[in-house]
Amino acid sequence: MDKTISLPYNIVDPKSPIPLYYQIYLDLRRIIQEEEIIQPGGMLPPEMEICQAYNVGRQTVRQAIARLVDENVLERFAGRGTFVRQATNLTQFFLDRSFSQQMRELGLEPKSKVLCAETGTVNAEHIPVLQRWKGAPCFTLERLRLGNGDPICHQTTTVITSHCPDLADNDFSNSSLYEILATRYNLAIQRIDHTVRAVTADNYRAELLDVEKDTPLLFVGTRTYTEDGTLIEYSASYYRADRYEFSTSQTCCDD
């Protein structure tokens, strides 16, 4: 991600009625959006180099860059520099599909880095939504979800294992949980309920997702039910908000 970009600057006109910072903003935007040498994740040169290229002061360059940051064209990382923002797949991530299915539909290879996989019993104090199943046997799976190798989501899943014993014997680094439940245990998913809210990254998730601490994330709490209405799993997922937004649709009905 830290590859520096060599920019083909245009000369700015100090006599133009257009402010210098705005001329630089337009030129940088042209370079980023039109020049093929620009790659998402590429790092801009240091501010001083850009100042010398345009023959302007640092404050002028900072104004231009700040506007591009506000427009989500660039992103800044403290102590690292300014980068061309990674391309997003906004409005394509729907709540009625599994992560693996979504990645494949977007042409990305789904992968998971398993951080923790262990059997135990439901701790309702940590997961209040599972209060009814307190003490029931469960399988806890913590994963970093990846798309083409890039971190997308940190996810912790708790599965009630009364209907799916020996779940821990499966390889979850390349397999979908829902696919395993369907093919090995004949458990078809009938309904998925979601709770979505905005949160910020703590130190742990910031490191996992390669973002700064306090970066906005999308939290999605997921409750999954089988055909007979049995709650079988709960997942707490933290998505990079700069990579995805969630979409759903609703059929209109009378009040």
Describe the structure.
The chain has helices at 20-34, 47-54, 58-70, 99-105, 177-185, 203-209; strands at residues 74-77, 81-84, 93-94, 110-121, 137-147, 150-160, 189-200, 216-226, 231-240, 246-247. By secondary structure, the chain is an alpha+beta fold. It folds into 2 domains: 20-84, Orthogonal Bundle (Arc Repressor Mutant, subunit A); 93-247, Chorismate lyase-like (Chorismate lyase, 3-Layer(aba) Sandwich). Strands 4-5-6-9-8-7 form a 6-stranded antiparallel sheet. A two-stranded antiparallel ribbon has the order 1-2.
Low-confidence stretches: 89-94
- Give the tally of structural domains: 2
SSE-based structural type: alpha+beta
Number of strands: 10
Enumerate the strands of the largest sheet in spatial order, edge to edge or round the barrel: 4-5-6-9-8-7
Helix content: 10-25%
Number of helices: 6
Return the average pLDDT rounded to an integer. 83
Cα-atom radius of gyration: 23 Å
CATH topology of the largest domain: Chorismate lyase
Q: Just give the CATH class of the largest domain.
A: Alpha Beta
